[in-house]
Amino acid sequence: MAEDAQLIRRGPGTTVNFHGTVKGPAAERWYIANEPGGPSIAGLRKTAGRLQALIQAAMTAEMRLRCHGARWSFSEICDPAGGWILQTDQLNWQFRLSASSLDPGFRGIAEELLLAQCGASIAEINAELENNGQALRTSGASNGQTIAGAIGTGVHGSAVDVGAMQSQVAGLHIVTATRSLWLERPSDPVMGADFASKLGAELVRDDLLFEAALVSLGALGIVHAVLLRTTGRYLLRSWLMPLPTADVTRALNTLDFAGAPLPLAHARPYFFQAVMDPARPDTMHCTVRYKQPCPPGHVRDNALKSGYEAGNDLPGVLAKLLDVAPAMRQTVVSLLIKSELRPFADRLGLPGETYSYTAARPGSAGSAMAVPVGYTSRALDLARRVFAANTGAPVIIACRFVRRSPGLLSFTRYDPCCVLDVDGLDNEAVRTVMEGVRAAFDADGLPYAQHWGKLHGLTAARVRSSYGSNLDRWTAARHRLLPDTAQREVFSIPLFDSLGLNA
Ligand SMILES: Cc1cc2nc3c(=O)[nH]c(=O)nc-3n(C[C@H](O)[C@H](O)[C@H](O)COP(=O)(O)OP(=O)(O)OC[C@H]3O[C@@H](n4cnc5c(N)ncnc54)[C@H](O)[C@@H]3O)c2cc1C
């Protein structure tokens, strides 16, 4: 058996996700840690060996193996459903790379690269980057996800001219039962063959495999490390204000902000988000952020923050409704909006100071659907009609915006997308609204694709309708990476069986 001082078996148990929306039995819970002695490529290689041994052990035991990052996914994508789980969040080494380790064909500068091990959290990555003059181009609303978990479902924020998190990825280290691969795009070589060989990996430059592995859903092997292309450190200047919906309707459907009554009339927002209480559709609570250079002397606030502040974690906000009677829906939602979407003006912070920590609030639930931006008003209208038939549901609808993002199964697949978040308390009324919105989109023929890590009501037909031939390409890539049934089985879950993703 694979266990040793770094790979520890904790026996069978129940696994629960961050917000408690999914609980499931695990036949075995594995925890993996790095070699003692600090980050090194030799240490990465040893850990990759352990990961491979564990995959082989799972296959011998005829068990499925599900990696857990931070378990922030609301959906059953983390549910081992009686199989094994591997907790990866202690694999959090990060590496800056020297120019000498890069491929001669690399176009860029070594300083922009960060190699993060799968379990490094977004908070840890932000701290490493922002204390050293760099920053992520985008992230989600808060910072607790691991990097492999975040790209594994295609996490996005609302930087209007930037893709989802996986759009920053330039290389991936993937471990399967029989292979260790360093994957890159042929058109974008970054690491030299020498690096791959020190890692004990094959250097594979292949568009199909790379595009499949970017959003892997944990179904293509273990993502051991992720190479990120970052940008120079910048500040975000943020405002939050209620605006008449009519004044931002054009911006919501075009991302052309001309004429919208935003704080800086002539600057293009870096970030824009609009939140609506569907019972008060004439007002949008808009968060707008502008990017500006960060002075070299800026000292980062490294304290782990909690609370809403300039961040925008709607599931966390709405979870406060938990203890309240549904009949009080309007009073409570209005009060919450007043306190949690309280207007503010001209706050300045690094991205990692802006998108901060969120405490677990069991009982809240989130769903998210990407639609082409030109359909935003139509999608909002359909969602509001569903709400009108379920007025007790404590939901809020948010519009966030993302460029088309790489990855065959990236749900932010329209250019650009509006991601419509339907978030609320995890009760029956909210689930009814969520499914009602999906059904309304289906009936209307509205193009949409759903966040893999949120509550989704996915069916094989919905997946096919959202992804079309990309689904076949992803499956073909999966067959190349995991060439026999036993290898594919180990990285599947019942959800994938039912959606045709384990074909
Ligand atoms: C408070 C809160 C706020 C959120 N905000 C946003 C937001 O702003 N934007 C957004 O898009 N989403 C958001 N989400 C959803 C969440 O960010 C995603 O579901 C994300 O994928 C969770 O990352 P994680 O590290 O917790 O991964 P997990 O939920 O643990 O795992 C996600 C997937 O990745 C796989 N995986 C994890 N590690 C590995 C690995 N090493 N190798 C292979 N597969 C792996 C898992 O098997 C699973 O399939 C939010 C969720 C919460 C709870």
From TrEMBL:
Keyword check for Flavoprotein, yes or no: yes
Source organism per entry reads: Polymorphobacter multimanifer
* SUPFAM superfamilies tied to this protein: FAD-binding/transporter-associated domain-like
Source domain of life is: Bacteria
FAD-binding PCMH-type domain location is 34-233
Q: Gene3D superfamilies of this UniProt entry?
A: 3.30.465.10
An example of a GO molecular function for this protein is: oxidoreductase activity, acting on the CH-OH group of donors, oxygen as acceptor
Listed A to Z, the keywords are:
FAD, Flavoprotein
Q: Name one Pfam family in it.
A: FAD_binding_4
- What this protein is called in its record is FAD/FMN-containing dehydrogenase
